[in-house]
Prior knowledge:
single chain, mainly alpha
Amino acid sequence: MAADKMGILAEQLGRMRGMTRYYHERFFADTRFFSLVLLALLVVGWWGVPETFLLVPLVAILAANVTAFDASYLIFARKYAATLEAEINQHLGADWLIAARMEDAYLFPLDKPKVVTIRLGEDFSWFGWMTILYTLLGAALGLVGLAAGWATLRGLTAAWFAAYVIGVASLTIGSLVIGSWWFGSGAGEARLTEVIESRFGKPVG
């Protein structure tokens, strides 16, 4: 039975390691895709279709949410992988598996409040900086699109103007508020911890 259990744990660990790789790749694939879409919209706008400028802020907001979703699955996979490593190490009687602790130190820590994957202070990392860089670039492109399309927006009827401004503002505020709750307060990881502790009877580590 012990061998069967170890085999299951090892299989699940391999699966979670595959997920971490996939969602790292997915994050950068989505980042590249949305970057190209945003630049293409700006180019089309400057070529004489100013209405496309107004799509830029909406696509930038979507990009931020999609890449944060990728990060949420990365956190999920890392959390489960860390649990499995701790359980296998316990059965082995030694800390043979340390990838989870290396990721905590080198990428970004689990079980600590952060802005998606950004943890400031002594835990700040290059991974966090890359997240900040992409976020700032996306926000800048969104603001450029809004500024470039402002004259077109002002030319719309009052109803369309209000609908656009309220829509963009609502999506932005909603994303920030829900993101702060899910990532910043640790609500998402707390749900994972609750499930893990209900099965393993102890926190990760």
